[in-house]
Model the fold of this input.
Amino acid sequence: MTTSDDQGVGVKLARKDFQSDQEVRWCPGCGDYGILAAIQFLMPDLGVKPEEMVFVSGIGCAARLPYYMNTYGIHSIHGRAPAIATGVALARPDLHVWVIGGDGDMLSIGGNHLIHALRRNVNLTIVMFNNQIYGLTKGQYSPTSEMGKVTKSTPFGSLDHPFNPISVALGAEASFVARTHDMDRKHMMEMFRRAHEHRGGAFVEVYQNCNVFNDGAFDTILNKDARANMLIDLKHGEPVRFGTERELGVTMNEYGEAKIVRIEEVGEDRLVVHDEHRRDPSLAFSLSRIADHPNMPTPVGIFRDVERPTYEGELQAQLVHAVERSGPGELAALLRSAPTWEVN
Amino acid sequence: MTVNTTSARDTETLDRVIIRFAGDSGDGMQLVGDRFTELSAAFGNDLATLPNFPAEIRAPAGTIAGVSSFQVHISDHDIVTPGDAPNVLVAMNPAALKANLRDMVPGTTLLVNVDTFDTRNLDKAGYESNPLRDHSLDAYTVFEVPMTSITVEATGPLGVKPRDAERSKNFFALGLICWMYSRPTQGVAEWIEKRFTGKQQVLDANLAAFKAGYAFGETAELFDHPFEVLPAKLPPGTYRNVTGNVALAYGLIAASLQAKLPLLYSSYPITPASDILHELSKHKNFGIKTLQAEDEIAAAGVAIGAAFAGSLGVTATSGPGVDLKSEAMGLAISLELPMVLVDVQRGGPSTGLPTKTEQADLLLAMYGRHGEAPLPIVAAKSPADCFDAAFEAVRIALKYRTPVMLLTDGYLANGAEPWVLPDVDALPDISVPFATKPNHGDAFWPYLRDADTLARPWAIPGTPGLMHRVGGLEKEEGTGNVSYEPENHERMVHIRAQKIAGIARDIPPVDHDPDPGADVLVLSWGSVWGVAESAVSRIRARGRRIGRAHLRHLNPFPADLGDVLRSYRMIVVPEMNLGQLSKLVRADFLVDARSITKMQGLPFGAAELEQKILEMMD
Ligand code: SF4
Done:
């Protein structure tokens, strides 16, 4: 991008302008590197200066990311990043606030903050790295781990039914919901760009490989030769179809449930045409239910992108309206707003 | 109570009177208590109030558990407490009488709504026989007034159904008390008209009941003469009546203006702190942003985010909410960002006594976080003082870039008193500069400190060249980079402690009221201030010598506190906990500090405290 700095000179920003001097310390081979790179490559194209960006994170491997960004940042408390970021965004609607965290951070200890930030439609770009495991604490099952998963804390298999993060975000009234994965930088950059441009709470789930504690969790769908048959790339305005020969597609049954079909068996006309902008989230929700778990054909891309007033926008409007109605606040008058009397 | 003049049907002048309105929680006792308070304030009396209500919104009607009361102490001179024993109890039903009788000294007046003393209500209150008939009240002056039936009669012609009419009986009681204490009635009539606009029948019924109550006093032979309490000779100034929560909200607004920082206030509904949110959310024309957060933790997190972004971040809570915010306070201490946490203390542990007062969070404020995590503590001493205390908490937070805990309590929050309005032009400027330039060559080091205050620079997002990351991990002194280096951690722990301890140089000396020759000192904090002052005056009036001191700052203590304490043989600390301040002063100063404790959800009474202090002195 070209932006003007303080001297008013046009300066082309580059990836390095968004890299801090801190050594990146994830395990070698971790999917987090790819996500960080996608974010740093994208930044110069967003037309935003580094000082206007704030990265807020919770705790976990993913949550280290703000340290590596040459922007403002807070590495906060486990789970609380959406709340702290809400404070930043409400105080300063002029800033661009990104929230970074993992599946444990955002769906377990911070689940409440995530859903409320989305419901309020605070202008946040929330990126959740989903590796289906607790990495930093060395390998316990997470709220997105599959049932029966054997981990250090579940030697006989996990009994917990996992969350489907896209369904959770849609259920929480998110106005923007997308999914991408750490093997495809271009796709990640596109999802992050759209999330950033969206006014309101944007939720992006990134499938991320933790090669130390949950290696290959997404191999079934992300291996190079598997992708064509296992990734359903959602494209606005187009029929939902996939497969090496694009021979597979998605239809809706009478209950509004999305089903995978062979196109030759049902005909092309029966395919669902994706619409990101439908106000009603039912279509997006049905699509999110196609795969319970990333071992069957899984939609990626933008599930939902609708306009809804942002929380900070409405809050700002209330302030303006209050001044129009009652004039700017006067402390002396406020103190005298109850009956007063004089003592001489 | 001293009596200046007496002659039948003439008005008798009293120097003070304490009235308690008590009834079922559905009877509107808080409402009439408030009205009487406003009237008396506008009339120029000094006053103090003590509301007391059940935690349940709808406790079973007619039972002791459902009794709600409002005590108001009005006086022609400067007073500091809502008073110990009422002179008059208005009891709207048997339960209200039973629940409050133990506070009534023989010889005082009971004004009972005789209509409610039927078998059903007597049963519900647990009376085996009717106290109005069994001579158990012979020591009191009892007035049996058929409040319900007269109210129904007075409102009947307006077409009000008896069941609805009955609801206005609290205004009957208010009218009667207004006559008894010679209150000007215009204010009540105007208030009723304003409050019930649009509900004509309710408006008419309440007005009729109020007038009927007043007329009843005038005409009934029951009372031989009314009383009056003349306006108090308070220091000159413009006064209004204010509760602690409202004064606190105003203090935050004033601090935000004087700091030139927008206020972002975020909290979760909790008794008795919610009124601060209610008040602040009304004043958006001051640029105040308020958020009702999804939980206590988020409320504190929002305040931290606001502080990072350059706003004045404030949150408030009570009881278990304070526990939930501990984690966020630890982060704010580590980030060294300014914010204020208001703790309106209530009875604990756990849900405890949500509507009752207590001071048992002092050690929680001091130590209730993992690790070495010190923060400054400021406490308000009276409802109106909540304004100054809030202002002071913000001043310290901003100057030292630290979270500050501001302690009030349920009594201060809901209690009211006349407040001499501060001169807003004389309020100090408490603004602090944001960092604008690199501070280490070309680099910006977020933990390079001010040599004097040890505060770190506050560089807010949007400032070019000062991008930096902060976090809860230990930081290297200076650069702020993550550091696990052993010596650095120890150094940082000491620096954080020194920063808070150094605030002692920046706060006034102890509020100390010595008494020549005294070897006992009464040391108070928080809302015990008023009653401690009264108890000490009473003791001095007996010719005994006793010193008095009060603490506004609980951490750090004023620099001269050790010297003050060591100049006495014994320190007596009255507090509504099991001795938390006395533990702290013993630990810090090795003095003989002893506690007088009270854990009943109610403030000390002056006579009660006087007695206890005297016992300790002897
Ligand atoms: S533990 Fe897993 S998620 Fe964490 S840094 Fe290592 S590979 Fe990445």
Notes: The first strand of chain B starts at residue 12 and ends at 14. The pocket of iron/sulfur cluster is lined by residues A 26-27, 30, 32, 61, 131, 135, 210-213 (CB under 6 Å). Confidence is low (pLDDT under 50) at residues 1-8 of chain B.
